[in-house]
# Entry
Amino acid sequence: MKLFTGNSHPALAHSVADYLGIELGQLTATKFSDGEIRIMVDESARGNDVFIIQPTCKPSNDTLMELLIMLDAFRRASATRITVVIPYYGYARQDKKVKPREPITARLVANLITVAGANRVVAIDLHADQIQGFFDMPHDNVYASPVLLADIWRHYASDELIVVSPDVGGVVRARAVAKRLDDADLAI
# Structure
């Protein structure tokens, strides 16, 4: 097993590697003079299970493109299996058509990840559960709330807490978290 990351969140990837007791794989992610992303895998991946940790957060265009190019590089480097760990799945907000002529970008990103060479995706707290169905490969949506709630309980009193949903679509999740925090106040 080999673990790699791009420029999106190297500190997270280093923490995971330290926790697993392995070295983070060597990869160079730079840009050409015209701004195009350049990926160089600096060690052999042939015959290995490769894990890529790459949130597709701000700047989402760059981090997503970096992920797609990494996938292509590892597929061409003969990795046996490529698992992508996406702690933040960018472009998830357009997970359904609300108006005519709107794209479903969450589905498009799933297709791009598939075509680029991923064999499995692990995401953290997807914006909407239906995004899992956009992938034609094994996909796991891991919920962070059990870990986060345990940490919140250790550091805060329940009367100090307010759970905030950024939009109406997140109210169900926010309400569930507030309930698990002894009916903490809820704001939308």
